[in-house]
Every structure is written in C-alpha cells, then in structure tokens.
Amino acid sequence: MVTAALLAGPSILAAGGEAVERSDGGVLAAGAWLIVLVPFIATLAITLFGKRMPRHGAELAVAAVGFVAVYGTILLFATTLGDGIVYEGALKIGEFGSFEIEWAWVVDGLSIMMFFTVGVVSTACFVYAVGYLEGDVRPTAFFASFTLFAGAMLMLVSAANLIQLLIGWELVGVSSYLLIGHYWEQKENSSAGMKAFIVNKIADIGLMIGIIIAAITVGSFTISTIMERVVESDAALDDVAVVIAVLLFIGAMGKSAQFPFHVWLPDAMAGPTPVSALMHAATMVTAGVYLTARMFPLFEEMAHEALDLVLIIGAITLVIAGLLAIVQNDIKRVLAYSTLSQLGYMVAALGAGAYTAGLFHLFTHAFFKSLLFLGAGSVIHAVHSNNMTDMGGLRKDMPRTFWTFIIGSLALAGIPLFAGFFSKDEILAAFNEGGHPIVFWLGVGTAFITALYMTRAVSLTFFGKYKGHGHPHESPAIMTVPMMGLAVGALLFGFLNVPGITDFFYELVITRGVSAELLGEHATSFDFFALFAGLTAGLLGIALGYRLYYEDAATQEERDRLFIPVLWPVLENKYYIDDLYMNGIVNPIKGPVARFINWTNSYIIDFVVNIVGAFTRGLGRFVYSGLDQRGIDLAINEAGAGTGYLGSKLRYIQTGKVQQYAVALFGGALVLVVGFWISIT
Amino acid sequence: MTIAQFLVLSAALFSIGIYGVLVRRNAVLVLLSVELMLAAVNINFVAFGRYFADSAAGGQVFALFIITVAAAEVGIGLAIVLLIFRNRASANIDELDVLKW
Q1: Who contacts B58 (Cβ-Cβ below 8 Å, separation ≥6)?
Q2: What is the distance between the alpha carbons of residues A295 and A245, in angstroms, rounded to a whole number?
Q3: pLDDT tens digits for A109-154?
Q4: Chain A residue with minimum CA distance to B15
Q5: Above 0.90 for ipTM, yes or no?
Q6: How far is residue A401's CA from residue A379's CA, in Å, rounded to a whole number?
Q7: CB B98 to CB A656 under 8 A?
Q8: Which of A652, A654, A659 sits opposite B22 (nearest CB)?
Q9: Residue partners of A410: CB distance under 8 A and separation at least 6
Q10: Is residue B16 less than 8 Å (CB to CB) from chain A?
Q11: In this structure, are strands A2-3 and A12-15 parallel, antiparallel, or unpaired?
Q12: Phi, psi dihedrals of residue A94, rounded to the nearest 5°
C-alpha cells in the first residue's frame, strides 16, 4: 500500500523573505519510486533472462535507464514550469518494534536534478556501452551490474532517510566493485576493484557512525526531520552537529574520492570505459557531493568548523589531482585525475558555502566529463591502447570523436560559453567573495593546470602523427551519437545559471523542504575579477599546452622532465601516497601485524580452543558411555526385554478354542450383570 | 399374562442357548444354540414392545430385523462349517484350534 506522507507541499516556505508556494507534484512525484524500482527490476530480469536475449540483456538495461531519463526530464519540466515540487512519499514495508521500516523517497529540486543527470548521462553511457561491449566476454554480467549501479545511485539520491541512503551508498560500492573488476582475468583489474571497495569501506565507517549519532540525537533517520531540528536550532543536535558533519563528510570523501581517500579512483579505470564515464560523471563520485549538499543546512547552520574542513579537503584535492593529470600517459588516467580535481572544486565550493555553485559544477561536469570519457573510450576502441604515446593524428580518422572531445575539453578548460566556464566561474567567484584568497588562487592555478593537461591530451591524441599500429577507424554510430548528445549538454547547460541573467538552476536546487536562506545565495552579477583570473589562467594553460605539445609529441616525456624537473618524480609516483599506504598500512598489516595475529591465533586462541575442545570431548565420551549407554539405553533395552518376556508368557492364553473364548465372554457379561445388580440395590 | 412370564421364558431359552454354545462340540449344534439365543432376544423385544405400548412398533420391527440377520448369519455359518467339514472330515469344534498362540 502507498501511504503518501506529505511533508511540505503545498506549503508556504520563506525564501529570501518572500513566501513561496510549493506544489506536491501530484501523481508524478507520488510515482517517483518507479525511478528506483525499474532499474532494480531490470537488473533482476537481465540476470535471469539476459543470456537468452539477442543483445545479452543490453536492451533491458537501456530501456530501464531510458525510462529514468524520460521520467527525470518530465519531473524537471514539471517542477520548473510549476511552483516547484517538494514531496516526500513513503511505502511502508514493515515494523521493527516502534521503528517503522519504510521505503521513503524525496522529490525536490535537488533530487530531480540528480534524477535528470543520472538518467540522461546513464542513457548515453548505456547506449554507448552496447557498441563498446560488442563481443565482450560476459556482456550479461556487465549490463546487470551496470543497471544495478545506476539503480543504486538513484536509490541513494531519492532516499528520504539516512538508512535508505546508506543502502544505496553501499549498493553503489558493491556494483562499482563488480564493474571495475569486470575483466577479472587480469590480476590488476580485480585488485583495482578491491582497492576501490576497501578504501570506500574505510570511509563508510565514518558515514555509518555519523548516521547513528544523528539518528540517536534526533530520534529519527529521516533527513527532513533532521533538517527541521536544524531550523529550530535544537540544542541537543547543536552539541554534536560538528561531529556528525565531519563523520558524514568522511563518508563523502570516500565516495567522492577526496584526499586522502582519492587513491581508488585512478585505479578504477580498470573497468570498461562506459563504466568510467558513468562513475566519474553522474554516479558514485557525485554521491559524496550530493550527501554534503543534501545535509548542507546542517553544515551551514551548526557545523561551520566542518565546513572549513570541507573547504580545505576540497582545495587540497583540486590542486594535487590537477598536477598529477599533467604527467599521465594513459588517457583515461588523465581524465581520472581531472575528475578528482573537478570534484575538489565542487567540494571546496560547498565548503565555501556556495551550495548552488558546487551543485552546478556537478551538473555541468557530469555532461562534459562523461563526454570526454566516452571520447577516450572511442579512441581506445580504435587504437586498442590506453596510452597516448600510441595515438596521435586521429582528428582526420575520427572526426566525430575529435569534435565532441574538443567540446568536452573546452568545457572542462572553462572557455567562455561552454558549460564548464559558467560553473567554474561561479565557484571561483564564491571563493573570491567568500574571503578565501588562498583557495581562490589555488582554484585559478588549477584552472591553468586543467587547461594545460587537456591541451596536452588533445594534442597527443588528435594532432601530430599517428604512432600506433593498424589503421584507426571512427567508432560506429551507436557510440558517436550518445557523445553528440552529451556534447549538446556540454555546450548549452552552462546557460542555465548565468549570473544576473538566468537563475533556472538556482531556482531548481533551492526547491527543497528547507528555506532557501539556508542554502546560500545566487550571484546576481558576474564577479569580473574572478572571471578574468580564471579565464586568463585557462587561456594561458591552453597556450602553454599548445606551445609544448602541439608539434609531434615523440619527445613529450623529455619535455615533461624539462618542464618540471623537480616535481616530475614526485608526480610520477603520485606523491608517494600509494607507496605510503602500501608500506605504511597494507604491508605492516600483511607483515608483522598479520604474523602477530597469526601467532596469537595459533598459540593463544587455538590453545584455549583446544582445551575447551578436549574438555568437551571428554565430557562427550562420559555422556556417551556413562549416561547414554549405561543409563538411558539400558533402561530402554530392559523395558523392551521385559515386555517381550511378559508377552511370551501371556501368549498361552490364546488357545484357539472358540468355546473357551465364549466362556470368557459370557463370564464377563455375568460379572457386569452382577455388578450392576449390586450397584442398583 | 404378565411381563414376567415372557422374561422367564426368554431367560430360560437364552440359558439353554449359552449352555449349547459352551458344551456342544459339533459346530452345527453350536450354530443352532446361537439361534436359540437370538430367539430369546426376539421374545424380549416383542414382549417389551407390547408391554410399553410402543406406538411405532419398534420391538416387532427389531425382531423382524434380527430374524433376517440371523437367517443370513446361519447361512454363512453353515457354509463355513460345510467347507471345514470337507477339508478336515470333521465338524468338531475342539479340533479347530489353528488360531492359537
């Protein structure tokens, strides 16, 4: 049964002092649970029947995410053209004591934005995957996990309570593990999957503890209830708000791959390219940003110290990851570090209190980064190598891939009128106006670095001479059409939030059950200082990249060394962070700690266990021979023997002579008659 | 006529029947004695039916039933006795003790 609990719709919410009427979205919002259910059902159907279908279950997967995309788009239009939908629905599943277990979904501007982004980007990636996975070893397993991945992300973003969010969160982790290790025949791939899973799990401990503390303090897992307490400035929540916020953010750091949990993301490239595209754009890595945005009023009102941590972590990540992207030769790794860097922007933006800017960058980034990944996949598909030193000169052979890749790169580099320009500018403006000069200049510097490494990647891949083997061909339409679709997004979606001109996106993401004052302001005019700083940095980066790499890049490695002689070895070894984790954590655990635990196990625990075992065995022996054999069994055997003996004696009264029986019969009757006679007189 | 006269007749007949069943060795005579006991029961039924002025004539009806059942029973009984006699050349009930032990 659907028991729709309306939280705040239609209701009056204060936004900037004005009263705003919100609608409950009607049947559209009430049925939004389908968005989550359909991918899960598709996963099940692919698992069961996929092998027997002509395209190994891909048709079901595409249909499921296509449905989500359409539904998300309809919701987007419904909320934008109407008053804005704020709705919370619940499907009661059962009771656990006084705690009601329900599947609750929230439909508001933030979740609709995520439905739309996840739906559209997933559809592009899924369609692309149909072409990319042609002739794969196990396409059914891939599409089942891929659909589960999308469904888990939708579960996460639709969650109205933290438990459900955690379920979606963990399902994203599990399905990402399956997808990263899709080609598990090679040890590195399954190790990469495990690395992603374990690093995420470590961070998830923070999330889990944070959720538990929040639930104990507030007495509910429901996010809107927690937000109500934030609005009421509840004293009990205020006391622990910083702890909760930091713990939740630790979980977010894991999924969104923020320093120091960033190590899993570059290795996650081991999965098929459509997975990388989806994972790096709309799902998984955005989960942490989404969580922080969803809980933003808590951070903003009660946990400013935690917000500072968010800002610092974001700033560190955006710089270190950007630098690493310059020295990578694997095209997917360039993009992976670029993703890390852009996630740093988003997280730092939230940390600086720029809720809209952070989410807007998430939104635009989802389109152009998935586009770049699909482009990289297309190139890899043609060249059969991830390595940019095997590429070059592909712009003539692969024109569609080239042009869409250029659009994605320009958007990422923040060139005016492309989507990334507006979102990055808004973040830089937020740093500038929020009084964070250091983070601002780090952001500007990273904009320069971003432009540099993207120019390098484009030059090495598409310009110069072809250095690989064979003759590369343009990918089939099933792969290039999704890229063109995403390119449209990368071109146009920046205009959804131009300061002072359009506020479509701002209006969308502040359509929530809490007042807009808690969610930050929308810039009403360009911050021209930030704009020119960012733009200059981007153009300089392109110029330098062009200067260094445009010509035949056979000697690009020497040039790298020349360019950054000191930094190079550090960057090449990823700041030794992986080595630090390996030698500081993994190897000690594998070595001395494991040996100590093994010793403890063999000599202490096993000793106790053996003693207990020996005692139990002795006890068992006594019980068997003493109690069971000589006690119970004896009694039973004797009872049986006694009955047999008695029977052997009593059988002789069965003479077989009818008249003796008749005597007994009539004698008995006589006794009864006499008895009755005596009793009635 | 009082009810007691009928009951005495019935009791006498029944006792003779019991005596016959218990002491006779010939199976045919045992069957005859069983018939005597049934006749005694019939007399009781009819006498009580009459004495209590049973308007449904239950006593008479039961007597008729018993006569029918007795006829069937004796038919089967005699058939068994006949078969036993054919097999063993004797209808002596003392020798029929194959059911013992």
Answers
A1: B49
A2: 8
A3: 889 999 999 999 999 998 988 888 887 778 888 889 999 999 999 9
A4: A666
A5: no
A6: 8
A7: yes
A8: A659
A9: A418, A420
A10: no
A11: unpaired
A12: 180, -175
